[in-house]
Amino acid sequence: MTSKFLQKGFIYAFALSAIMMIHSVNVEAQNVGASPEYIKALTSQWTGERFPDGRPKVSDSILERLKNISIEEAWGVLRNKGYQNQYEGDWQIMLPDEAMTGRVVTAQYMPLRPDLEKQVKDQGVEKEGRSPKGGTNSWPIDILTNGDVYVADGYGKIADGTLIGDNLGNAIYAKSQRGVVFNGSVRDQEGLSEIEGFNAWMKGQDPSYIQQMMLTSINAPIRIGRATVLPGDVVLAKKYGVIFIPAYLVEDLVLTSEVTGLRDEFGHQRLREGKYLAGQIDSQWTEEIKKDFLDWLNNYPGKLPMTKEELDNYLKERNY
């Protein structure tokens, strides 16, 4: 009896001690903005330079070359790499004939819940030093840098879901020299259209102002329609849709797509000339066609989109 009593007493004391230890731990509130460590963990396959916030710093030259890649080419490369959920279509576009590329800054919005909104505001202002003035929908804009694209999930809300108007649009363009991709809406579209160079992919526009919705996170993973988007992704936005590309794949995607474009140009030219049959071009090429393609590249009449060294290294590793 004494032994059982002592054993029970020990178990009780141990449990009480564990409870007291748990209550003594200071619980940190969840950040509104993701930490650099978290962003680095999300994008761990990137091995290049990073911004102070942890996002991959894909080069400006790659962003510029990406503009010339078709949506289909980019989509095909990503599918072959196992990324099957990186495309979203059905957009309203302010400047549909102009492509936009850039490094993604994400923001998540949700229907308003007062207790959560208070926690977000308290955390953002008191712990993270964010602006106490204006709405929290200005917070993602405050951290933009040149080359960034503001990508926000406004859960498709149109009326009363306008994430920006022309004032915030001017702020976005001044900081990023880019525009936005919103699973949501904008207001003041006439004013936004007057911002030279600003572009927007959105689900709608409405004269109402934002209400009954709240910001919940910055630079965390979000969903844009069919696509999963991470901070530091690279966006390719064109009139035919939007592709979100993992940073570590962008350079390979650009080069692969550029070579595919050259192959297509060569193939189309040879078909028009009647040199080969369609089946010969559409199947694995013979040694004769490969040699013809290399000779065609060496005498390419225009400027190749990549360096000769990049092209040579690429072709060495491919069985085309």
TrEMBL record:
Keywords, in A-Z order: Magnesium, Metal-binding, Signal
Binding-site list for substrate: 165-168, 187
Disordered as annotated region, ranges: 118-138
InterPro entries, per the entry: RraA/RraA-like, RraA/RraA-like_sf
Segment forming the signal sequence: 1-29
Basic and acidic residues bias locations: 118-131
Cofactor(s) the protein requires to work: Mg(2+)
Coiled coil spans: none
Ligand binding (Mg(2+)): 188
Molecular function GO terms recorded: metal ion binding
Protein name: Demethylmenaquinone methyltransferase
Species of provenance: Algoriphagus machipongonensis
